[in-house]
Structures are given as C-alpha cells and as structure tokens.
Amino acid sequence: MNYSLMTFPREILDKILELLDGKSIVKLAHAVPAYKSISQVLFEAFPVLVPDAKGFTTEVQDKIWPVPCISRIYGWTVAQTLPVQALLRECQRYRHLVQLRVESLDAAMSMVQLIPRGMQIDLDCDIGEGDWDLGVLSCAIKLFVDGEYRVRKLRLPTRLVNYMCEPDACLMKQIGRLRVVKEVHARLELGEMTVLGLGATRGLGHLTLDGLSYASEAMLESLLECTALMRVVFGAVRCLVEHSEHERAGGVHNMKYLAENVLARSRLQCVVFECLHALDGPGVMDYTKELKAVGWKQILTKDSLLWKPI
C-alpha cells in the first residue's frame, strides 16, 4: 500500500505543521493543497515584515514563521496590513506566537489593533533611544491586559523617568494583571517597586534581575510571593568588582541574605549568577558556604554559576 501526505488525516497534519519552520511549511504547502493558503499568506506578508529582503528565500521564510517579529508598523496601508493580519491568524491557529518590539504608546495601540485577541506574544519594551515614562508604560501594558494576550516573555525598559513616583505602583498593577505564561525580565534600574508586587503576576516562572548589589532585602523577600517562580537569573554581577568597596560589600550581603532568607523558604529550582565565576577579592565568594548550608549545589557553566537544590 502506498502512503503519501494526502492520505494522512487533517488532525495529524495539523500537529506536524505546528512543529515546522518557515522553509518546511512552504514545502508542505506545495505538497498538500489544503495548506496552500499558508504559503500564499507568507509570500504576501514577507515584503511588509522583512522590507529589506531580496526575495522569498528560505532565510526570509524562517524569519516570519513560526514566530514573526513586528516592530515598526507606522504608516502601513490596508494592502500591507491585511496579509500580516492573515499571517497572525494562521500563527494563532497553530498555537504559535508573535514577537512584539514596542517603543512607544502609539506603537502599542497600533499593535493591539493588528494582533488577534488572546494570542500568545513576546513583549519587548526595552528598545528605542528614548526614555519611557512610567505612567505611559503603564498605559501600554494595560492595552495588552485588555486584549487578554498571553505573554510568554516580558522585557521591561532599562531607562525610565519618574521611577520613584506614584506611576510605579500603577505599572506593577498592570504587570500583575498580565496573563504571563513563562517569564518576565525586569531591571532594578526601575526602582524597587518594579519587583515588589510581581507575586500577583499569574504564571511567572522565570525572572531575570540586573544589579544584585543594589537589591534591598525587601526586594529579595518579595521573590517568595511569586509562588510559581522556578528560576531566577541575577545578571550584571561583575559590578561587584567594578564598583566601590561599599557596593561590593552590599552585593556580598545580598547574596548571603538570598541564601539564608529566600532560597531556604522558596520553591525555586534554579538560581543563576551570570559572570560570577570571574569575581575576585577577599570575601566575595563567601556566599558559597551559605548556599551549601541551605542544601544547594553549584554547577559551573561557560558564562555563569548555576545553583540548584540538592
């Protein structure tokens, strides 16, 4: 008996399609007439999403399927918008996501009009040369809350203004309302309230924080409120050797406090200290005994020290 793709039930082909990259889906679409519309949508959308492309190459196909990236959509005509909307509907149908690079409130407003309601997204607000105002960022995040988007990954801006003012609390309220699927990347430059309150964020499983030296005890304690949190990455740890003795001492204190008061009581399964193995100096590595004392073991990787509970 001869078998071909045409003999497979549509349900099985749909499952296969969910696993394919761009160039593979195009080949499948040519082999199975039922999927020809996907190939057509990709072909019509690529000049909009990859305007500098020289043609509908396999490299371009992989850029727009299964995870297209949308950044600047100002001035799009109806002829440009419609094929992208069609592509996003196909991505949503096959449980794919879209990456959004949001640099302003206007960009966020345009994107929520373009993207199907409830779609899974990666949301990156850490782009552009200007500073975000916290109140404006809160309004932008609220747009994605109201659209019921499922946020797999959220990256907050590094540079913000008015970060010690009341809008900070409003921002945390909106982040707490997001349907977070996997991870939030936050930066301590936002002020302590950026992390305080993240416990209300549903599904927060992965958190990246920069600048361990500047974290307060209250900030570290707030990690216990994130009941679904499994992994924390502390970046920019090399600041302990680049900054003053006072700042280095603060970093060492925070690492000890993290071990004694947070890790021993949390459900965390992994903590990563990026670039920590490059540290040098008396007392900087004293925290290792604290981690071991609460039942954690060290795994040295290429660029970081990874700790897991025994």
Give a verbal description of the structure:
- Helices cover 40% and strands 18% of the residues.
- With 310 residues, the protein is of the alpha/beta class.
- The strands form 2 sheets. Strands 1-2-3-5-7-8-9-10-12-11 form a 10-stranded mixed beta sheet.
- The radius of gyration is 23 Å and the shape is globular.
- About 6% of the residues have low confidence.
Structural topology:
Blueprint: H1 10-17, H2 22-31, H3 36-49, H4 58-64, E1 69-70, H5 78-93, E2 97-101, H6 105-114, E3 120-124, E4 132-133, H7 134-146, E5 150-155, E6 160-161, H8 167-177, E7 179-185, E8 206-210, H9 217-222, E9 231-235, H10 239-242, H11 245-263, E10 270-274, H12 287-293, E11 296-300, E12 304-309
Parallel strand pairs: 1-2, 2-3, 3-5, 4-6, 5-7, 7-8, 8-9, 9-10
Antiparallel strand pairs: 10-12, 11-12
Summarize the structure in short.
The protein is 40% helix and 18% strand. The longest helix is centred in the last third of the chain and has 19 residues. The radius of gyration is 23 Å and the shape is globular.
Major beta sheet, strand line-up: 1-2-3-5-7-8-9-10-12-11
| Main sheet record | 10 strands, mixed
Oligomer: single chain
The level of helicity is: 40-55%
Figure out the total of helices: 12
N-C termini distance = 54 Å
Low-confidence stretches: 187-193, 238-242, 277-284
What fraction strand?
15-25%
How many extended strands? 12
What is the molecular shape?
Answer: globular
What pattern of helices and strands is seen along the backbone? Answer: HHHHEHEHEEHEEHEEHEHHEHEE
* Average pLDDT rating: 77
Structural class: alpha/beta
Integer-rounded radius of gyration = 23 Å
